Every structure is written in structure tokens, then in C-alpha cells.
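Record format v2
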Amino acid sequence: MAAPGLRPGLGRLFEMPAALGRVRRAYSTSQAFAEVLRLPKKQLTKLVFPLQELERHLVPDSKHEFHLKIFDPSLEDIARAESIFTATAQNRIEYLSSAERLDHAPALPRPEVCFIGRSNVGKSSLIKALFSLAPDVEVRVSKKPGHTKKMNFFKVGKYFTLVDMPGYGYRAPEDFVDMVETYLKERKNLMRTFLLVDSVVGIQKTDNIAVEMCEEFALPYVMVLTKIDKSSKGHLLKQVLQIQKFVDTKTQGCFPQLFPVRFLLDLPCSAVTYSGIHLLRCFIADITGNLKTHGFQFS
Ligand code: GDP
């Protein structure tokens, strides 16, 4: 049985010293995650599952509305995903190229995931955090209004390609129609779209354009909630419940579990600056077919 207050994956681990040994071996390539494992339980839970602490503020009736555990991998799975995201001589993680149009995009056989969101939603910060185990990767940022915006392709070893789509905002939907829409509609190897939503302001009109596109093309997509450190617990809870309700009632293709992320600067662990990132890495590794995890309750 899981320790009180812990998700099953974490609970299992803490009860079994042998499992912890196995996990540590699985991380031999991931120094950062080995450090994470040394954190006290409470901090470890907060780091891997940032919404967990909000759950206790929910009234019992609304607990079922909060789908925290649909993707519930073990720490062993998370460790395997960390090694996929860790650059080594054998596992090259690098920027490949940029393209303004789909027909200029590299033809790549590997599965692909893409990240889209409004300008300023925290997309570059998130992608930098995802690549923090590959310090040579440079995430390019082009923010000037009117500046040509491009899709940026990153190779993650032999495993998958990650695409950073231009932020929408100033000139949406024009940029979208020309580039993003064509990409979403026609990219054959696109496995999942990660739609970033600012948790402080919730789903905005422009976010709806992206939602409608994913729905229209019947794409599987996931909502990532950024900046969850910026609101009070009460405001965050309200926003999360609203977004969850939107996902449950207004969407077909959106994965029911929300993936929250935030800067986390108060941990005594220099390598860790973002909470929620480990679960997100594990989810990406899984849906690109690189982990045979049993982490899904259903999919
Ligand atoms: P982009 O335009 O979507 O690429 O957004 P950026 O990653 O450049 O982030 C926009 C602003 O939000 C920057 O000032 C970031 O420092 C800030 N930001 C991004 N993520 C977070 C977060 O999780 N928490 C907080 N407090 N600020 C964030």
C-alpha cells in the first residue's frame, strides 16, 4: 500500500529499498535525477507531481473532477525517461533546423511532438527546462513583433523529434493558417501536440484557436499549465478546475490529465529548477513509444 499522501508510484518506492537501488542504477546516466531522489519525500512529491498538494484543498465532491493519476508512472519509468533526455556521446540531443513552411521542414522518420502556445506563455522556458540535461542545446527565441517566426526542430537521440512552434499572439491567426495549421494537419509522424496554457489567466480566445484546430484535425493533444507558482493556491485551484472542466466537456482529443509546470527555486538542489518537468519528460518518452510503461490507468 502507498504511504499516506503519496501517489502509488512513490509509495511503492519508499517501501522497497531494493526498488530504490534498481531506480538508482537506472539513473546512472542522470546525475540530476539521482540528486532528486535524495530529496525528502515531501519535496520529491512536490517536484514530480506539483498538483498533488492542491488536491487536499478540494472538497470531497470535486475530487473526482481532478484527473491527477491517469498517467501515473513509477519512478523507474521516470528514470528511464530522464536518460532519454540526457545528452551523451551515444545519445545526441541537438537543434536540427528551422523552417517557415512545412515543405521546408526536415523529413524525419522518428516520432514527433510539438509545443504550441501564446507568446509569453512560458514555452521557451519550458523547452529549455526539458532540455536541461542537454546543456549544449540552444533554444532560440524570436520575440519581436513582425519578426519571421519559424518552427524549430530538435533531435532527441534516436528516440523522437521535438518541434518548437512559433508563439501565437500578435499576428494570429495569420501565422497559424500559413504554418502551424498546415503542420498540424499534414505532419504524418506527429504523435502529440502540447498546448501551453498560462494558469494565471486560463484559456484565452487565442488558445481556443489552437484547441479548435486540434479538434478539427482530430489530433491527440495535451494541455500543459505554465506558471503555476504565480497565483495563490485559491486562484490556481479555481483556474485548474475551470480548465479541467473545459477539457472534460468541450474537447474530444485532449488528454484528460493536465500537466502543470512551474519554476521552483526553493529546493536545495541546484540541478532542479522546474517542477512537473520529470512527469512531462516521462509522458513524452512514453507516447513516442520509447517506454513501455504501465503508467496509464487508461489512455
Ligand atoms: P514564450 O514567449 O512562450 O517563449 O515565454 P518565455 O519562456 O520567454 O516566458 C515568458 C515570461 O514568463 C518570462 O519572463 C519567463 O521568465 C516567465 N516564466 C516562464 N515560465 C514561468 C513559470 O513557470 N513561472 C514564472 N513565475 N514565470 C515564468
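The CA atoms of residues 70 and 297 lie 5 Å apart.
The beta strands are 93-99, 112-117, 151-156, 160-164, 190-198, 221-226, 259-260, 262-263, 274-275.
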